[in-house]
Write a structure and sequence with these properties.
This protein is an alpha/beta fold. It is built from 21 helices and 17 strands. The chain is globular, with a radius of gyration of 24 Å.
Length: 516
């Protein structure tokens, strides 16, 4: 590390000398800069060695802070610090406080539906998920019980909304019919053709006495502004940026992002999935800007779990409690689906989505179908997919042909060849950017929501997914099959023959996997 420091620091010193001449003053300034660089590298290096559990991530950040004088340390402070640090710990403590308040509500809900995890020793005899799984997947059911915070809830129904237009229309109808409360949490909220009507609907609901709360991510929503937002606030809509109690601290920490998508109306109509609130999700958007996604309308007891996740995030951000009956009414049975909300993030739910994904692939007996926009798999996910394919499981991954971030496409390509060699089907869907995130296992279990197949969704972002067993899985599977039908298969022979320069370029970006 010191050798690298010397090279970077000396290079910086020589650059200063060349620019200003070899005066005594220049030497003093050069020494000051060199000492500053030394201090920054030592402090950053110690922090990396003490806090980075992933070897590849630690090595990458060490190279950045050593090779790039001063700026490398600033980049590390902004993007690398606090993955599991004080902010995540504080968030978990505030979430625990919110859970205690929800438990104190008593009879407003069935406690096991809201907050109690399954008893791992009784999961396979529980007449919920375990009885809907084949016997071979019983170990997977046990893992879900131990990883998940919420209990599987029967009596749910799931309606697939196949586009942003369908989701926004259903959301506007639900908000217009709201009588007591509306809570909305999203990563991106743009005040445009998609966001403005939602703000207007929230303002109208607030003016007629409905309690409306909007939580957005500050990093993901730089375009939330304008007269529509101001009018909604004047009408009484409570609007906050996620976990930004300290604006100064927030400006120096862009790594912990709230990627969850939740909309709950009157405590019994819920929405979740992959859609943000942006005109890019509309079919009227220009083809080169358009994003296609799926969202889901949820009814039944699992809606209370969506409300509970929102209540924790709201309390963490604002210090305000939502543990009231109007947010958590008694919810009647609404269908034959069994659903379980799976939150994950760098707090108490650290790595939950990653563990469930790996276990689902290992446990699959017949098929694993994945649709994801960003595919930068961990070594564990790659190994699980290769092993599954080699033992005869049909493993399929559908990706967009066009990505909104080129560097992610390049990095993703660096991980595909080993999968193709093992027999994994890789497909590219042409047309608008496919932003949906869906997993279907053996045609009997599905996971839908906000998580991508990448390190950020595995370990950094606050994500929310919904596990489903029941009739809705067939409809979700049919949607996945349609995406496969219109996609182009990546052939190993052609992919392996891409040029040396292209392979080197893609592998270079693959080195940055811990940051993507």
């Amino acid at each position: 590390m010191l050798a690298g420091l010397g090279a970077g620091g000396v290079a910086l010193l020589l650059a200063l000398q060349t620019a200003a001449g070899f005066s005594t003053l220049t030497w003093w300034w050069g020494l000051i800069v060199l000492v500053l660089e030394l201090a920054l590298v030592v402090l950053a290096g110690l922090h990396i060695l003490l806090n980075k559990r992933n070897t590849a991530s630690a090595l990458l950040w060490l190279v950045v802070v050593v090779v790039v004088p001063i700026v490398g340390t600033l980049i590390y402070v902004a993007f690398g610090v606090d993955r599991h640090g004080r902010r995540a710990t504080a968030k978990e403590l505030r979430s625990e406080a919110a859970r205690e308040q929800l438990l104190a509500m008593g009879g407003a809900l069935t406690p096991s539906t809201l907050l109690g995890g399954d008893d791992p020793d009784e999961t396979c005899s529980d007449p919920l998920e375990a009885d809907r799984f084949p016997d071979a997947l019983d170990p997977f059911a046990i893992l879900l019980a131990r990883v998940g915070r919420y209990r599987a809830a029967a009596g749910c129904s799931l309606e697939l909304l196949p586009s942003g237009d369908a989701f926004y229309a259903a959301a506007l109808d639900a908000i217009a019919a709201a009588e007591s409360s509306v809570v909305l949490e999203t990563y991106i909220f743009d005040t445009d053709e998609a966001g403005d009507p939602i703000l207007q609907a929230l303002a109208a609901a607030s003016e007629r006495g409905v309690r409306c709360s909007l939580l957005f991510d500050a990093i993901g929503s730089p375009r939330i502004a304008g007269p529509g937002l101001a009018a909604a606030r004047r009408a009484g809509v409570d609007v906050h940026a996620f976990d930004m109690r300290s604006a100064l601290r927030g400006r120096f920490q862009v790594n912990l992002r709230n990627h969850r998508k939740i909309l709950v109306v009157d405590g019994h109509v819920g929405f979740t999935g992959g859609c943000n609130f942006s005109a890019r999700h509309l079919t009227s958007a220009p083809l080169d800007e358009r994003s296609e996604d799926v969202h889901f309308l949820v009814r039944g007891p699992a809606v209370a779990q969506l409300s509970a996740v929102f209540a924790e995030d709201w309390y963490s951000t604002t210090g305000k409690t939502l543990a009231e009956a109007l947010y958590f009414p008694a919810i009647p049975s609404a269908g034959k689906d069994v659903c379980r909300v799976l939150p994950s993030g760098p707090d108490g739910d650290y790595g939950a989505f990653h563990e469930v994904l790996v276990a689902a692939i290992h446990g699959a007996q017949r098929s694993v179908s994945i649709v994801t926009p960003y595919f930068v798999p961990s070594d564990e996910v790659t190994l699980a997919m290769r092993v599954a394919a080699r033992r005869g499981v049909f493993v399929s991954v559908t990706l967009p042909e066009r990505l909104d971030h080129k560097y992610v496409l390049w990095a993703s390509n660096s991980f595909l060849e080993p999968l193709l060699e093992a027999g994994v089907e890789i497909l590219r869907r042409p047309g608008p950017f496919l932003h949906a995130k869906v997993l279907v296992v053996d045609g009997v279990w599905a996971l839908v929501g906000s998580s991508n197949i990448d390190p950020r969704s595995f370990f950094l972002n606050y994500e929310l997914n919904l596990g489903v067993v029941g009739p809705a899985v067939a409809r979700i599977g049919a949607w996945v099959d349609e995406q496969r039908r219109i996609s182009k298969r990546v052939k190993l022979e052609e992919f392996a023959n891409r040029g040396v320069a292209r392979r080197a370029w893609e592998n270079f970006w693959g080195l940055f996997r811990p940051m993507l």
